[in-house]
Every structure is written in C-alpha cells, then in structure tokens.
Amino acid sequence: MRRASFALALLLGFCVIPADAQFSDDFETGAPGWTFDAAVGGCSWAVDATPATSFYVWQCSAAPFAPGPAATVFAGANALNWNNGTSHDYAGAGLPFDNSAISPVITVSSTVGLTLTFQCFYESEGCTFASSNSYKIVDILPAASLVPIASFICAVDNTAPPPPGSSVCGNGILDSTGNMSSHHLHTIDLSPLALTDFRLGFRFRGEGIIGVTDVPAVGDTFEGQCCGWFVDNVNVQCLDGIPPTAPTLLFPADLACVPSPITFDWTDATDTTTCGAGTISGYDIEIDTTAAFLAPTVFFTPVSSITLIGPPGTFFWRVRAYDALGLAGPYSSVFSFTVELPAAPLAPDTLHVNEDYQTSQGGDPGFVDPVLDQTPAFSAIYRDANCSDFAIQVYYEVSLDPTFLTGVMTDGPIGLAPPLPIDSRCPDLLPIGFTLQRGLIYFWRIRFSDASGPGAFSVPQSFRIGDDFDFGVRNGSSHHGRRCWVATAAWGSDQAQVVTSLQSWRTGTLESAPSGRLASRLYHSAGATAASVFQAPGLIRTATSGIAFGMPLALVLAFGLALLGLVRISRSA
C-alpha cells in the first residue's frame, strides 16, 4: 500500500497555553508572584533548569549502590523544584518539617467547574530500614492565610500513610518507587471548594530519624541522597468533558483536482466547558491513500488551515479538533482529491485581433475584414492540461514572416494580475514599442506561462492592416473625410442633406458586399476627376429635381458601376 507522502510547506512553531485557563505558569520566566519558605538543611525551592538526577537508587542492601537513571527533562528550560537532587540533611533531631512554594492569589468567579493540572516528577529513597518518610502535597490556601482549606497528597516515600486531613490527588497516591525518572500529569478537581480567591501551595514534608544511615560506607541519611520534587506547567482551568465540534472541510472540495502545493482549509471548530465557551488548541489533519485511514500522514496545526506539498495521486483527508485540555473531537467528513503533476500551458486558441477602441474581446478573424488600427488589440484563450491552474504571464509575437524567423516584433512577458483561470480570455494586449504599417498582411502568435513555466505557442493567425482607403471606410463610424465628390460638387456642400444621405447609403448598403466595396474604392479613386465635370450645380439640380428623394442624375450615373455590386448582392441573397 502506498502511503500518503505529504510534506509541510510552512508551519510556524508555537506554544499552546489554554485560553480558558484562570491561572497558568510554565516557569520559563522564573516564578513572579510566588513565595518560597526558607531553606531546610540547605535545601529550598527554586526555579531553574537543574535536572532531577539520582546518584543512587533503592539498592539499600547492596554496596556499592547502582547508578540512578537521569530524569526526563520537562517542557521548556525551567521547572519549579525542591532539592535539585543534591545530598543534604534536611532537619535535625528527626523532627518533621514542611517546606512550601506558594502561588500568587488566583481570582475566579467560582471554583465550580475548575480543575488544577500540573506535571510532576519526583525521586525519593525507598530503603525499608530507613526510619523516614516524605510526602509531596498540594495545598489550597485562602488568599490571606497559610492554613490550608484542603490538602491533596500526590506522592509518598516508603508507602507511608497520608498526613491527617489530606486527600489524594485526582489520580491517586503515587508511590515514588513507580515514578522515578519520569514525569506525569496530576489532576485535582477544585469544584467542591466554593472559593473565589485562593492560592496554591506545593509542600514537601519530611518525617524520620536523622542520623540513621542507609549504608555506613556512604554515610548518607534518608533525606539527603535522593529526595526531590519537580513541578511544571501549572494550570487552573475549567473542567471539560465535552469534546470540540467537528470541522467542515472547505478546500480542496470533495473530488477536486488540485496542483501542489495545496492549502487545506476548513471551518473553525467550537468547544464548550463547564465554565462556558472553551478554546480550540489545534487540529489534526490526516491524509491517506484510502478512506479507511489505515496508515495516515498526520499534521498538527493551531489554525484551521495548512499548506502541504503532496505527490501526484488520489488521496483522502479529514480533520479533527483538540481543545485546551487535549480532548479530541469527532472527525470531519472524508473528502477525496487528486493531485496533478504540474504541466505547462497548452497552445492558446480563439485568437482575436481588433481595433483598440472596439477591443479584441468580441473578436475579429482578421485578414478577411481588415484591421483598421496600426496598434490593434490582441487576445486569446488560455488552455492547460491541468484541471486547475492559472496563467501568470503572457507573451506574443507579430511578424510579416509566417515562420517568425525574421522581423519579429515582440511584447512581453506581460504579468497577469490577477492570474488568469483556465479557459479564460486574457485582457487586451496593446503593442508597446512598435506600430504596424498600413496595407500589409501580418502574422501573430501567443503563449501563456504558469507556475510550471512557458507553454506552447498558438497556431499563427494572419490579419491585414487596412490601407488608406480602408481606414476611410470604417464601418459604423465617421467617414474620416471620404467625400461624395460628385454630390458635393452638385449641391455645393458636403453637409447638404442629400450628400449625407448618400454617404449613409454608401456605408450601410453599398459597402456591405465585397463588390460594392470595390465599386466604392473605384469611385473614390476617380470621384475628384468626375466632380470637375459638374461645376454647374444649378443646371444639375434643375435636371435632376424630379428624381425621388432628391437624388441627382449625375450621381446616379456616377454610381452606375457600383450598381453592379448591388446586382451581385441581390443574386447572392
């Protein structure tokens, strides 16, 4: 079975502190607001990076003692600790002693729904013939008193009974014999205490007869060699037995085809605690080659999005959320997606050339109808073999040579912003740095580039730039000075109603067919000469006054040749 081999494109490092915590301390900046009891026998509380280590452990009947294991290092550099693993006599004459580290005042609206959690590591000698005991106790203290409201014993040495008036931690008394060289989580329910202001006290209690040595050759008393307590990541927060909601997958959509890298996106999950709204600490996104997720690749992200680099193939993905206490919610629905190998663009098609003012978006096939602009607008449609991609640049060439080996005029690469989706027409491309000549046939081609690089050129398209006559025959626009020579001579002004009517007839009817345009071109060439014959406008107007719509007889004769074009139009209709 091929395993999903996805790699993280970008994931920022982070440290999650529960946002619903009423109090939180990881001791990385020391212990601001905490107070420590005075040292006992040279040992006291501290916040530092000194690891919990033992030189000897438990083999009290043997000499020499076996070297003890090194302690697991807590998260981060610092931990709240007592003894630091050093060897000392803590008290004289065998009297019991207590040594505490007390937190700042914690203010809450109510302890209902609150829980205390902390990580713990400890080491204590467990020799059966040592007349000594040690306890690790958590006290809940009023804001202005050192008399505990409640005490919870979390660990003992030599299986001693709990001190009077104490309860066990939420996960029971942990005998030191089973918890050397490891750290573990303690949880204490604060709900029954009904407090609004309180302090936490971490108390090390020692009892025993000082001076009884475990091994005379070593000469160490019970208190000195191995005792120690290490506390980290203290949090007072809401109890949470309610898992987060399931996210809704957004992208890639089910059955989507996407290029790599892929930015996965989903909706934010929500969380509820006994104190109200909870906090989402992050998400697991799982990706596998089967919907059964037998061997998924898993990534954790603190936000509802992540960018990953994946290989080609079809995959399945799902997401679940975690709240601030690490409670996992249900999985989302399962979506599948296909990752394509990146491919360069295909050859563009549906090339358009047109006058700038008309834009190339509507299209003009070129060549048949001349382009009446020496700096026309070009455009084409971007094609790609990938099912989802975007063009980021475009480049085109114009030449009189259909092979584009000589005389190539280029423009680009031109950036496309925003990127152009597949099967979309690019914006108008206007020549920069060159002007085309009238009356010549040109060829042009175009290509697009995407993230994979430049694609293939299009099939070249030919087009003709109109000559001087064409530029005067622009359909649907002004006449650009193309005069009705004979009519103007007959009526004395090119603004006469009959003249302008004839110009409209010529543009809208006569020049709608190639033969009519040919007749118009011939008339345009000979019109000035013909007009010189008719320099007696009064005579002409008199002779032609009976013609319908005021059309002059001289003009009818002048357009005789053009009527051949109308005949062809009627035959072809």
Give an overview of the whole structure:
The structure is a single chain. This protein folds into 4 domains: 7-13 and 242-340, Immunoglobulins (Immunoglobulin-like, Sandwich); 31-238, Jelly Rolls, CATH 2.60.120.260; 349-466, Immunoglobulin-like (Sandwich); 476-572, no CATH class. Helices cover 13% and strands 33% of the residues. The chain is built from 8 helices and 32 strands. A hairpin with a 7-residue loop joins strand 9 (132-142) and strand 10. Helix 3 packs parallel to helix 5 and helix 5 packs antiparallel against helix 8 (560-572). The longest helix is centred in the last third of the chain and has 20 residues, at 514-533. It starts with 6 loop residues before the first strand and ends with a helix. Mean pLDDT is 74; it is low at 10-19, 52-74, 87-93, 124-131, 176-181, 209-226, 474-481 and 539-573.
